[in-house]
Design a protein that fits this description.
Order of helices and strands: HHEEEEHHEEEEEEHHHE
Helix content: 40-55%
Number of helices: 7
Number of strands: 11
Structural class: alpha+beta
Strand content: 15-25%
Strand order of the largest sheet: 1-2-11-10-7-8
Oligomer: single chain
């Protein structure tokens, strides 16, 4: 009889009982085989008919054990998938359909087979300082990249509301990443675990955007691809300014001037993406023509974030003939603060600082 100590940790008893129950069925099938072999006269008979019966019995026993193990493994896979979906809902939670007058849609495709999350990150939120959005790309894949992305996203979700300017938000992200990488490096030293990207070689590309109520867009870019703006005329980069280095390898400079990217007019759409979209290749090694696909999506009607997302994903999966080799994240924001009749397809007016 199994006895449990009164002070046993909570959860030990259910786990132990579950393991005992999981062994009950294979043990019963094994006992049937042993009893048959020891007690049944057919098991010791050398006649062809007796041998066929014995083979059938042993085959049935083996099949029962295999089916039981298969059911057990399927339950564990479903359980792991539910855990992964819960982790995704916390890390890359689905954005609301509207944020302060902006229509929103987002998607993430993981490069790891069967995975639901990876090294890409995004978030959009309404604050007293305007709508703020982040998109980023952690070097590498797997759990290490997921943990790094979680550290950056967690910091953004607080700093976006606390900091009055984007420079303060970016410095908060840098400090959070530094703390995370120091803790990871200490853990790697203690466990001698070399799996994944070493903490000393980790970096994150990050793009921060701020959209004010009048549509003015400001940005801070640390090594990330610039978004595209979709207007009635096509797709154009939001800015052409040289980005800062990615977070991680080098400290941020003392001055962090926000790039003025002009105004997002009613009806215009911003498409934020990670480099996995532009660097996806087909069987012949050709890159995915993201800008051309977005220009085509800009001419479609109705132009909603969901429609743009479907157009890009369909073209991307056709190009790569299956899932891409790198993580891909897309975050789409459309200005719907005014009625469409008030918009005459003016496009985004960029300031001189954005085109330097």
């Amino acid at each position: 009889m199994i006895r449990f100590k009164p002070g046993a940790p909570r959860g030990v008893r259910p786990r132990l009982l579950s393991r005992v129950r999981s062994l009950a069925v294979p043990t019963a099938w094994g006992a049937v085989a042993v009893v048959y072999r020891l007690t049944c006269p057919l098991a010791r008979d050398d006649a062809i008919g007796a041998r066929l019966v014995s083979s059938a019995v042993l085959c049935a026993v083996g099949t029962g054990i295999v089916l039981h193990i298969r059911r057990r493994m399927l339950r564990e896979v479903r359980h792991a998938r539910r855990i992964a979906e819960a982790a995704q809902s916390v890390l890359l939670r689905p954005p609301p359909p509207r944020v302060d007058g902006l229509a929103v849609a987002a998607v993430h495709l993981s490069a790891d087979r069967g995975a639901r999350i990876g090294g890409d990150l995004y978030e959009v939120t309404a604050t007293e300082h305007g709508v703020r959005a982040v998109i980023g790309d952690v070097r590498g894949h797997g759990l290490g990249a997921v943990r790094t992305g979680a550290a950056v996203l967690g910091s953004f979700r607080e700093a976006a509301h606390d900091e009055p300017d984007l420079a303060g938000v970016l410095r908060r992200l840098e400090r959070a990443l530094d703390r995370h990488l120091r803790e990871r490096a200490h853990g790697e030293h203690d466990t001698a675990d070399g799996a994944g990207t070493p903490a000393a070689e980790e970096f994150v590309t990050v793009l921060l955007l701020e959209i004010l109520p009048d549509g003015e867009v400001g940005a801070l870019n640390c090594g990330h691809p610039w978004p595209y703006v979709l207007t009635g005329a096509g797709a154009e980069p939001l800015a052409l300014a040289e980005p800062l280095p990615p977070l991680g390898p080098f400290p941020l400079p003392g001055e962090l001037p926000t790039s003025a990217c002009g105004r997002l007019l009613p009806g215009d759409t911003l498409v934020l993406h990670t480099d996995g979209a532009e660097e996806a290749r087909d069987a012949e090694g050709r890159f995915f023509p993201l800008r051309d696909v977005l220009a085509e999506a800009a001419r479609e009607r109705p132009q909603t974030p969901q429609a743009v997302l479907r157009t890009v994903l369909a073209a991307l999966l056709r190009h790569t003939v299956g899932p891409p080799k790198d993580d891909v994240a897309l975050l789409i924001l459309r200005n719907e603060r005014c009625s469409p009749s008030a918009h005459q397809s003016h496009g985004v007016t960029r300031s001189a600082t954005a085109d330097r």
